[in-house]
Amino acid sequence: MDFIHQTVHALRDAVIQKKVSARELTEAFLRRIKAVDGKIAAYNTLTPEAALTQADQIDSAISKGEPVGPLAGVPIALKDNLCTHGIRTTCSSKMLENFVPPYDATVVTRLKNAGAISLGKTNMDEFAMGSSTENSAFEKTRNPWDTSRIPGGSSGGSAAAVSASEAAAALGSDTGGSIRQPAALCGVYGLKPTYGRVSRYGLIAFASSLDQIGPITRDVTDMALLMNVIGGHDPMDTTCVNLPMPDFTRNLSDSINGLRIGIPKEYLINDGGVDSDTAAALTAAILQFEKCGAKIIETSLPHSEYAVSVYYLLATAEASSNLARYDGARYGYRAKNTKDLLEMYMKSRQEGFGPEVKRRIMLGTYALSSGYYDAYYKKAQQVRTLIKKDFDEAFQNVDLILAPTTPTPAFRFGEKTDDPMAMYLSDIFTISVNLSGIPALSLPCGFSKGGLPIGLQLLGKPFDEETILKTAYQFEQQTDFHERRPTLV
Question: Distance between CA 193 and CA 338 in Å, rounded?
């Protein structure tokens, strides 16, 4: 049995039933990483010794008949902005190249307690600022389906690792589409949970009112299993909502007959808003949902055209505040041979941050500056409220909203690096979800004529991940897009 291509739930069952040991499974994934990561560059840091130690502990517990967690022995990957005790956490930035946190993020602790085995930390756009993982200070992660193309971003390393079978699943973070967009471009599943459903404690912040941690997996059942583990209230995070946690696996097989799925007319699925291959895949997917019994209804999100502008004002403003702590004095990169404190601050930031991070800090600082705050930041917050209101009104008439995840399949390296606005528009269909705080799942729905994955996203009501998951599950049962794998040696 080729375990590296199996789902999380299949691997967990195999370990518990002693068809394979956790150590054997971990070694298989480590061999896979050694064989293909030179082509993909999904990882910044590997932790083979710690992973094998965890695996031996799982095997020992199983041999003694002791209880093990719901992810027992499953090898996973972690985005490199999640704090890990004793393991460097870089945010793919020179600023944090040698930073070793003294604690684990809450989601990391919960994965450990569930028996998951961490293989290492995955590459990303620096401080999660980007849509292609070209902004990493270390490597450019490549798309397993075509290594001349980007994997998406900023969780490109996590999505590529799952797609290339270098991990059974991974965690990413989503500020404006950074889980869903790379998941779509790499042919896997990516969920941005409702803001407050998953603790952000230990996530190195980009934009605190937008950031959310979520899973990247190979199928919907795996997504539900990981959400059962990482979701729920955390007193260490004051934005984490104290609501009862459902069992997300419980209702996956429920019928979606009569479910109302809205198609926003502003997203122009058949009128030039997306490329022809993506439009064709989405049209076919809509027909498939209808065959499953769903009702397709046109809906409207009238303020969608302002989402990109609003996002890049609010996200950059919060980034300029969050990243002010990196001054070379307390931790992180410190410039050498400076004559005074001011020069140390300036040179540390100049040398430690990459160009995209500097660009966003400057934009955010400008938006928050005296004389411009009301015109830019305050106005953006007001329009954000209108965008949220659009979703509230739409969900009075529909249960879910269907939209493209990306306008096109994965583009080639360098195509958009000289045009920041073109790069920013890669997230045009995902940004509104973060501004509104609602959950959204990207799932594979087809392939381009060139063989590149295409994804669609299902947007749900706040804290209604269950409906999203069961709808995606029904689509998954009728299609085989999630079973296809990129060809790698």
Answer: 44
